[in-house]
Amino acid sequence: xxxxxxxxxxxxxxxxxxxxxxxxxxxxxxxxxxxxxxxxxxxxxxxxxxxxxxxxxxxxxxxxxxxxxxxxxxxxxxxxxxxxxxxxxxxxxxxxxxxxxxxxxxxxxxxxxxxxxxxxxxxxxxxxxxxxxxxxxxxxxxxxxxxxxxxxxxxxxxxxxxxxxxxxxxxxxxxxxxxxxxxxxxxxxxxxxxxxxxxxxxxxxxxxxxxxxxxxxxxxxxxxxxxxxxxxxxxxxxxxxxxxxxxxxxxxxxxxxxxxxxxxxxxxxxxxxxxxxxxxxxxxxxxxxxxxxxxxxxxxxxxxxxxxxxxxxxxxxxxxxxxxxxxxxxxxxxxxxxxxxxxxxxxxxxxxxxxxxxxx
Length: 360
What we know:
The protein is of the alpha/beta class. It has helices spanning 2-11, 46-53, 79-86, 105-112, 123-129, 131-139, 169-180, 189-195, 227-230, 247-255, 273-282, 294-302, and strands at residues 23-28, 31-37, 62-65, 90-93, 116-119, 143-150, 155-157, 184-188, 212-216, 237-241, 259-262, 287-292, 308-313, 323-324, 340-348, 351-358.
């Protein structure tokens, strides 16, 4: 039953920020009588969604939920109170919520009402699903997931800049899937200028799951005529700039519906990566997909902020004059190299997808 609740939680990834993606299953006499998951924008919560779908009395039921039921009043009443009022007998919770407004208080409220509580079932999977939410609560930043699509020798384009297409159709479709399960997608100003991308989710039926589009652009040079700017009122676009960005450039983008966010600059006058991460966390984002380019990838790696990597590798070699997937990192010892652990590998037609998590 917890596996079913975890599967429901995964279905909500990318749609619930700033709230976590939670799944809930209600069982009575050995049969499932209701299911729920956190809905778009974070409301209603999974427990409330499941309770609303129960077509019979909840007296004596067991509730499986992937995160501790909330205990605080927000835009909706506490889920812990709703479970008490419904008369459930037992709650199986995968994780304690680290949010200071909850953190054990939901479980305590249920226990005080005489409800049996079991915590820890499916904890590892629940933590993996909501790693972004947990990072935002504990570290003040979202999870950053770096996507790389490269040749066997780590190149993303030829010396002339040709890159369409290094990987095949199956790999590109899987990359679109990644967009659909993230709150936002992030690129640098160079990629925005060179490729003029739209950065929406192009999988059939999933256009509505297009993430917020973010450009690191220290001087707000994104063209008001770009695809990103001209579609900003349809799918949100945020430009992260520094104080050096001219007022006229900011205003031209804002007139298009682009949200301009000023953050601190680093010593080179570019957007400071750590400051950008904090700003995105403050705005409630939990999962950000980094798609390019090489300098942006290097910036996040140097800052120690890449939590996951999805590496799509094609069976071709472009050579040393090709453009690297990752820019210069500036270290001369292996001890300083960012390390990652391989967690999965699979074939996608003629390409390979490797999934890595940050090493410890």
